[in-house]
Amino acid sequence: MMTIEELENLRELRGSEIVRKKGNQINRIDDCLYTVKSQSGNGEYAVCQVDNELVCECPDFQFRNVKCKHIFAVEFSKSLREATQRIAPIENLSACIYCNSSNLMKYGLRKNKTGNLQVFYCRDCHKYFTINIGFEKMKHNPQAITSAMQLYFSGESLRNTQKSLKLLGVEVSYRSILNWIKKYVSLMKNYVETITPNVSDTWRADEIYIKVKGDMKYLFAMMDDETRFWIAQEVAETKYTHDARKLLQMSKQLMGKKPMTFITDGLPAYHDAYKKEFWTQKKETRTEHVRHITLRGDHNNNKMERMNGEVRDREKTMRGLKTKDTAILSGYQIFHNYIRGHEALDGKTPSEACGITVEGKNKWLTLIQNAKLSSVEK
Length: 378
Known about the structure:
By secondary structure, this protein is α+β, with helices and mostly antiparallel strands. Among the domains are: 4-83, no CATH class; 202-322, Nucleotidyltransferase, domain 5 (2-Layer Sandwich), CATH 3.30.420.10. Helices cover 39% and strands 21% of the residues. It is built from twelve helices and 14 strands. The strands form four sheets. The chain has a five-stranded mixed β-sheet, sandwiched between helices. A hairpin with a 2-residue loop joins strand 3 and strand 4. Helix 6 (174-192) packs across helix 12 (363-377).
């Protein structure tokens, strides 16, 4: 007969097996409520937090009053989510940004309207640089540039952003602001695509019409159901004849996996792409495609419609997009994922909900600095 300690170790082992098992075994409702699928049937058990302790409605916990495998599974799941990846600001350097050598010497000052920057010379790679990482040779300081990006992606137009910066003593044209956005969105986009967030096994996709040069196009987007992380996007010419396989392929590549539940509306393009990208003959690895979107209940699309509303608000301010491959959409995706806190996530950003923490008071600055160093290392 097994001892009490051996039985607890066995439950812990089975809890870890639930976490590793393929399929959407654990569903996080909120920070205090989870559901875990029954391993011996088709039902599920609710695991909730009461007075800082987890309780389960399974017979093992209710009648034996022991810590069951479902509670162990939720604890393992929470610990995995809390294992955050930190993106820290880079404010000071003691090594060359090109070759990482510490054999440096000061080489005068670079003067501009916003202040002086120390220029360094590397005796090993013979290159000159400043510690103004990501903003080298820029006329305006990082605070002005990142403030412009925050104002613009928060909903201001280019000209209103220009007026707001003027109140701060920064004289700049609206065209320069647009150039800043294009430059730094491109830099950050390449960087954040190398980061793999810890998204859930349930994804949502939807489309919204947008205007590009006055013509109607459609923005197809993929979002994680639990964390609201905007996974991928593409602009299509049409809605009903569009091949959505590229959206699904990009999502799999960026996340390093496919979902176990895929929620969409009844658009045939999604189901056609699902059969080619997500469907498998093995039931244990097969993605379930939920197509019956309702106004209420578990299969509503309110989360996706909320994100569509954000895009619609941004588009109204711009009065339409100028080009199909505009940096504005990529920039807003970065803003949505890494900068903007969401009320439904208790003020967290989707990246924080996925285990990625962008540190520092100015998150734009942190992302740009890390993106610049990442591009130099490549």
